[in-house]
Design goal:
- β11 and β12 form a beta hairpin.
- Helices cover about 15% and strands about 25% of the residues.
- It is flat and about 90 Å long.
- It is of the alpha/beta class and about 300 residues long.
Length: about 300
């Protein structure tokens, strides 16, 4: 018999009258959270590839009578998004399905949907959970982890940029301001200043009350100073904060920016539920599959720190 098959023996209580309720298959879910981290795209291919293509450098002075200087543009790294297939299923014997008195298997779509939704949230959140780990990089990307103090600028400018606090710090009003200043000072692959801005603060559940006090206070948080909350007044974090229940580090926090090609999600195929019957055994098979990819192209799309 196939592994994972649900038999009458697995569901003996479901074959008898007298149960008050059957519970544990699925619970109320959190609202979708991965879409607060990633910009959504569709895909029609096995994988998607983005191409870094740098702009021009600053214009030098043209001496009278001389020709202007000419610049060039060069391709850089090519982050790749493989569209992986995620799937889950179960098998129910003919007897277990026929003799069940409580319609448990009629809830199969809800239970599988719960599993598939949770899977997507975990896969998406793991991009941030592994953001400080050098062994987790974008395939054919810039060669470093998502959050680093030494991202290479581009093929022409051999310098680096940082999207991580130089000294990791817990979430406070001061550390939030430091990271927002760092975002405001961002440059493009040729070292030119860009109008990068914080869009959303992303925190684990352990920091949700801290985030609310920092962003919601009219005056400076946790001080006796009669000074305005500059982050709030200046709208330095446009969309406030969001809690992600799938983050695993209680101290790490992140800021998503308005970088146009930063954090990206590709849908290759939406979730699909299917069922059929095995002719020889009359067992019913149920499954759900979905294809997608999470990642980043320009690391300027996310800033953060692992906390102190």
């Amino acid at each position: 018999m196939a592994g994972g098959t649900i038999t009458a023996g697995n569901t003996a209580r479901m074959l008898q009258e007298g149960l008050n309720e059957v519970f544990g298959q699925a619970y109320k879910e959190h609202d979708v959270q991965w879409d607060k981290i990633f910009d959504s795209n569709t895909s029609r291919k096995n994988f998607e590839v983005d191409q870094q293509f740098e702009g021009f450098a600053l214009a030098p002075v043209k001496p009278e009578g001389d020709s202007i200087s000419y610049d060039t543009q060069t391709e850089g790294f090519t982050p790749k998004y493989p569209n992986l297939t995620y799937g889950k299923g179960f098998i129910v014997t003919e007897e277990a399905l026929e003799d069940n008195l409580y319609g448990v298997f009629n809830r199969r779509a809800r239970s599988l949907a719960f599993s598939m939704n949770q899977t997507k949230e975990v896969v998406g959140a793991n991009v941030l959970n592994n953001a400080f780990d050098s062994s987790f990089q974008m395939q054919d990307g810039d060669g470093v982890e998502l959050l680093s103090t030494s991202h290479p600028n581009g093929p022409t400018d051999t310098g680096t940029f940082s999207n991580k606090l130089a000294v990791d710090a817990d979430l406070t009003e001061a550390s939030l301001e430091d990271l927002l200043i760092q975002i405001n000072q961002a440059t493009d692959p040729r070292g030119l200043r860009i109008a990068l801005q914080g869009i959303r603060l992303i925190v684990p559940p352990t920091l949700m009350f801290v985030a609310e006090r920092i962003l919601g206070s009219t005056l400076q948080n946790d001080t006796a100073n009669n000074a305005v909350n500059a982050v709030k007044v200046m709208q330095s974090v446009q969309d406030g904060f969001t809690v992600n229940n799938f983050l695993t580090d209680d101290d790490a926090w992140f800021i998503k920016t308005n970088s146009p090609d930063g954090m990206k999600y590709f849908t290759r195929r939406e979730v699909r539920f299917e069922q059929d019957m095995d002719f020889g055994t009359s067992n019913m098979r149920f499954k759900a599959t979905e294809r997608y990819s999470f990642g980043w192209s320009d690391a300027r799309g996310m800033y953060g720190t692992s906390g102190s």
